[in-house]
Design brief:
alpha+beta, 4-stranded antiparallel beta sheet, Rossmann fold, 17 strands, 2 domains, 7-stranded mixed beta sheet
Length: 310
Amino acid sequence: MRIRAILSYLCVASLAGGLALAAPPGQIRVQVNLVNLFATVRDKHKAIVTGLTKDDFQVYEDGQPQEITYFSAESNLPITLGMLLDTSGSEYFMLSAEKDAGSRFLGRVLRKGDLAMVMSFDTDVDLLADFTDDRGMLNRAINRAQINAPSGGMIAQGPLPSSGTGGTNFYDAVYLAAHDKLSDEAGRKAIVVLTDAEDTGSKLNLQDAIEAAQRTDTVVHILLVAADGGDQGVAKRLTDETGGRTILVRSEKNLEQAFDQISEELRSQYTVGYSPSNKKHDGSYRKIKVEMKNKDYSVLTRRGYYAPNN
């Protein structure tokens, strides 16, 4: 079911964007010149807007208008989801509630054909459950998350070692989830992070994390769980640049509401595709702006992408 849905999506996207085929000995190379955007539209009352067509959208790349060549309002394309849990000391009082709400969220949002993984991060980045559709395995992985849990005994550990000086490896975790785990996945990809967004130990920086998500077409949502508000600037930059949302969480009730909002958005996205007028394969970063013709509507989608470099 999942393979058929993804192949169908890739086939349509390829037809919309065009294919460049080359066949070295023993290898087939496929190049798809199509930029896909996953967009959520809300009205001025913050309600999800459904029933739109491609004529309701305007897409610009580096300020130049683009022709929309692929559009879908279907929400059946499988989702590959990464849940990242901050297990540093700052989350001590909320981690239990986060685990309960996270398990319920996966139960609501995941459908047949979807996959999810679970990671935790503190002084290390640990993979608690690899991609699976087994809800029981995912729930058990979430329940194993512990404050400052040692890497020993986990299913796997991310390739970036601990800095040895303590801290919270938030940027490393997002980078590893996008670059190492989601890069080979197709279709809709999202990371949901529960954290205060305060990084004190990563080897990589915020831009590295953003770029990893952009290069893998991954949307990052952050539930900012912090009594003092956390680092809202960092969280907002990461989510804005990848087409996700930052939601401030100050209580268990807010946590449930935040998960409900993310669940609704993941299941109410439009797919908007265009073949860029700039055909250069120069590896450059291209800025994207999507506007709604109805100015009472606002759209949430990523702000750019990296052109191919070959």
